[in-house]
Queue: 2 jobs
Job 1
Amino acid sequence: MENRNVNQWNGNVPQPIRSDGAGAIDAGPRNIIRDIQNPDMLVPPSTDTGLLPNLKFSFSDTSMKLKKGGWSREVTARELPVATTLAGVNMSLTAGGVRELHWHQEAEWSYMLLGSARITAVDQNGKNFIADVGPGDLWYFPPGVPHSIQGLEHCEFLLVFDDGNFSDQNTLSLSNWFAHTPKDVLSANFGVPESAFQDIPSDELYIYQGKVPGSVESQEVQSPYGEVPLTFKHELLKQTPIKTPGGSVRIVDSSNFPVSKTIAAALVEVEPGGMRELHWHPNQDEWQYYLAGQGRMTVFNGEGAARTFDYRAGDVGYVPFANGHYIQNTGNETLWFLEMFKSSRFADVSLNQWLALTPEELVQSNLNVGSEFMESLRKKKSPVVKYPGFSYYPKKQ
């Protein structure tokens, strides 16, 4: 691995100087913390070239919506314009905090980051659903299905929606509809006097502080139509992973979570010194969320352009449709991230497997490589790779 960040000014300030001599000291106004966090933007690999859009945005750079009972923030196409297929919302609820009864025009997919919560929903056939979710659990609500989320303790989760222009501040909320419906209409609809609505909220609650609910059994409501035919919950961490020498992958899509018709995902673990192999996805753009650790990704778009980005926990990454890329662990802790797609099924193409299953003479003539390379190729896919003696730790001089 080439040594790119070789000049340390005053001992700890990185400088835009590459080991081949390209660049010069930046002594002007600058955000040094940002430069430290983005070494591959300050000193790009010599293989980076051409034009690619920004493929990174951090939730830390978004505006918080603070409410009694919790908070939320979002990364959509407004923050990351290239991200047209999916949008993400990071939300936290207190113990008893409620994301009020609401519904969306988009599908909602979620990953629980910490703590536990209770989710409820009712489908168009009057069949209902109630369940508790904890770290590593998913839920999926199809478009138009009304639902709620309530913290059983302090909790935090990632919400993903199948439209990059989505905003959680434009959802259809129960309190907002009541507030903007004449009371005589509410009276006629529910068959009670108008006085029954004298204390309803005057505007949208969005998130509010409630009481911690009792057990699922104590809150159960029996529907004459029964429960929803497909569960809205999936316990991803209980799923057997695909183990490789460099980490693991858990894939969840409509094949093992049938209700999830428009969002597929993979939970990827990359050990120190490991790498999510060179690959691409033949069905959709990729929206990423980094859970822990740090890594870097180079994206190649097939027009002689490649660009490298650095990621940490809380960052969102994006890869346009069919662009080649890898994700390398650049730290000394395990890197965890989610790959998500606006699709019913997960699909990827391994560069290594493709070459292994192509006639040997053709590959050799195309790349001008010898037998050592050809013998290293794998006919079976290995999503995360790690080889003895190969790692990424930036050297200092």
Job 2
Amino acid sequence: MILVLRALGVGDLVTAVPALRALRAAYPSRELALAAPAWLAPLVDLVGGVDRLVDTAGLDRPIRVGAAPQVAVNLHGRGPQSHRLLAATRPGRLFAFANPEADHTDGPRWSADEHEVDRWCRLLSWYDIAADRADLDLRRPGAAGLPTGVTVLHPGSKVPAKRWPAERFAALARALSEQGHRVLLTGSADERALAGRVAEAAGLPSDAVLAGRTDLGALAALVAHARLVVSGDTGVAHLATAYGTVSVVLFGPVPPAHWGPPPDRPRHRVLWAGDGDWPRWDGVGSHPTMAALRLDAVLAAVAEVERLVRVSGAVAA
């Protein structure tokens, strides 16, 4: 068995797809077990190649896998806690970044300044496993009765600093609706109130709020068949990248060089104002780098990427 630890969220799983597929290719006859939260199961199915999902939410409980794995792979973090959690399964080998504190001196050094996709590809390269950082696409689910061709706005984030101000999302929703977009608002159950406030301010009907009403599989299908996605740096943005859905992603305070869509994918636009000299943030509301992103810049980015897709589609036809 090959045991992989990635006990995190949606974006974390999607950015680990090239590494997971590389491990599948390197060990085609071995069971590939992924230690990740059980609620990610619909998305794990869309990755493909994973034989078993071991419910692992965080690092505070042992990983229950039965027999010791031949190889344990830390795609979770730099250690030491994640290293020790995998070492407790008594693997034949541990693939992980070097961390003397966890008594693991093998592996490459951790670098804080690299893209999340490249980080895990580099780790596997150290152990002579080649990974293709462009291998990000997920299996496209059927629409299964969900609306298609819609514009998905995702105003929330589990990190409040990454949220674009709600009033600007409302203004964006209103402007796009006036341009003929059918706008739907997504989010978790905890973000339903936020999505409701955006919808009300934008003059959208209550049934435009899907926050808290879709499971992960339905959300993936909605994004896969959408016309456009606009969101902050969160899991929905990574789903848009995985499906080639036209998107505009608003970044701050974490730079897109660490988590953004690949620069060679023209269907995605990134807005980032983080290179300025910003005042000290008081920890309340949107981070200054997010508050600096103007509505007109977002609308311009939407128009630009949609125009590019129309032109490229016409050329291809």
